[in-house]
Specification:
Blueprint: E1 12-17, H1 25-39, E2 42-46, E3 59-61, H2 94-103, E4 108-113, H3 115-128, E5 132-136, E6 147-151, E7 154-158, H4 164-184, E8 188-193, H5 200-203, E9 212-214, H6 222-237, E10 244-249, E11 254-256, E12 261-263, E13 266-268, E14 278-279, H7 282-294, E15 298-302, H8 314-333, E16 338-342, E17 356-360, E18 374-375, E19 380-381, H9 383-393
Parallel strand pairs: 1-2, 1-4, 4-5, 8-10, 8-15, 9-10
Antiparallel strand pairs: 2-3, 6-7, 11-12, 13-14, 16-17, 18-19
Bound molecules: 6-O-phosphono-beta-D-fructofuranose.
6-O-phosphono-beta-D-fructofuranose binds near residues 138 and 279.
Amino acid sequence: MKSEHKLFKGKTLAILSGGGDTPAINSSIESIRNRASMLGFKVYGIRKGWKGLLGDGDIVDLSHQPYDGIYGGTALLSSRTNPFPSKKNPENRVPQILQNIKRYKIDVLVTIGGDDTNGAAKRLYETEGIPVIGFPKTIDNDLRTHSMHTFEGKSIEAVLCPGFPSAAKGMMEFTARLKTTAESHSRIMVVEVMGRDAGWLTGTTVFGGAELALVPEFEMTKERKDFFMETVKETYLSSPKKSLIIAVSEGVRWWDDAKGKVDMVYASSELDEYGHPRFGGISGVIASEIYAKTGIDARAQISGYYPRSGECRNYDRRLTMTLADKVVDLLLREEYGQMPVMNKVVPYQELEEFHTTSIDMGQIGNCPLASDYYDVDSFTFTPAYHDFLKLVLGKPHFLSFDAEFPVVVPEK
Ligand code: F6P
């Protein structure tokens, strides 16, 4: 395409990333930047999410710059800044944002984020007419992308959100590694997994060898907790190596004997600008209760930022490029207030533009785990979820060492 014929010559597209980072954001930025540049846009990066549009603005030029899309996190930096008034910050920042969009002559805004960032973008589109395109992102995989998964003839509403595939791979490997130490000490290992309100990421531990799991979608009442303790003991005692990995979501609601109600365990009760508290520590509570109730040695391990960190994995790389192809389509049609998504959950080889569609950003919101994916009675993920994981991750990653050594009896 000769530059003088480029369709959007003289126009500027700006990209921002908001909310928790993921290993796939740089890949998204690079893919969007490359495609927008080919269309003729000058491409800017807004630093620190919405914060980069406050005050004098914090904007960099991404056009014709080298960019490493494999490196995890976001080179544009991120924040949980909310343009609209919140309990934590009553100030309405919209006028500052509008002023900077005008000052920097930004024609189109692409917002890489989850429900919070894209929800704010959608409001700006609707109330102020700012041309925005949302781009999905979260390791929690709870952003409603309307991606369908077909399992045994049934269509299940799933989510396929950039960031999740890389985090899932990290979580699978993390769990598989823990197995060796759990086995060496005949222990129960309680692994805590990020995910806030949804158990999608917690479920990925089953591909690393976790056998039982607790998710935020189903609260652990007193009765369910008693039943869970029995299940834990039985599963441990019947395991060949006398070891067990249990995955728990950070936001699990767990019966607290002292309080006489179910509650969550917070790392900090301070809320961010979108009203979210910070979770952390439920695994320690559960491990010590398992020991107290069953006498089996149990330890807690918080996986924390491990799945959120590190490089963009293959599936995410191709997913972000495919969704960026759909951004081109939206730009060409000048369709704003939309977010590109995969219309179905497909294996790596089928991540192609013809499986994408776009949804109105008003339809995103949070998507909990479908009941087809988790069996409340056995505290396990179902075959349907295993199939979903197979599409995204390929094979499970089970380490095992099954040597049976003959026992030596001393001679008489
Ligand atoms: O939303 C992504 C996420 O990683 C959640 O799983 C987690 O609860 C939260 O972000 C932690 O956010 P922060 O790093 O800002 O404390």
